[in-house]
Amino acid sequence: MTIAQNPEIAAAYEDVRNDKSETNWLSLEYVSDKKDELKLAKSGSGGLTEFVKELKPDQAAFGYIRVPISNDELSQRTKFVLVCWCGPQVKVMRKAKLGIHKSEVKKVLQAFSIEVMGSDVHDLDEKDIVLQLRKAGGKYHLNCNES
């Protein structure tokens, strides 16, 4: 089953996008070291901090996180971040295929403001990501599938 055919992943994506849901992140991991199939690994309500705690140095994974942004108490906006994680101990063949898999992930996790690559937990510092989201301002990336 491809990621696009996985109803569990699609439902988790919609749950993260729903402002009325407490769920604000999801992670996709590989079924095994030998298979290129992705599965919904986890989701939660602890934001980027909780997502980062789940990452392992020998793992490649993808994350989708809802991040509230506010310039003051009256202006609250919601932004989304796509994370591509490739830990420092990931095997060479997995690293080589990550770009191909990322394009498949973007077909399902379509709407996001920024994309962040991480190979160290410090690459996913919340303050830095919020700053990037503010710089992105009104920009909104919607991955359009071209025919």
Automatic annotation (TrEMBL):
InterPro entries: ADF-H (IPR002108), ADF-H/Gelsolin-like_dom_sf (IPR029006). GO terms for molecular function: actin filament binding. Keywords: Actin-binding, Cytoplasm, Cytoskeleton. The keyword Cytoplasm applies. It comes from the Eukaryota. One of its GO terms (biological process) is regulation of actin filament polymerization. It is found in: Cytoplasm, Cytoskeleton. Its main location: cytoplasm. Transmembrane segments: none annotated. One of its GO terms (cellular component) is cortical actin cytoskeleton. SMART domains: ADF. Residues 1-134 form the ADF-H domain. The keyword DNA-binding does not apply. PANTHER family: ADF-H DOMAIN-CONTAINING PROTEIN, CORTACTIN AND DREBRIN. Belongs to the actin-binding proteins ADF family. Coactosin subfamily. This is ADF-H domain-containing protein. It comes from Tieghemiomyces parasiticus.
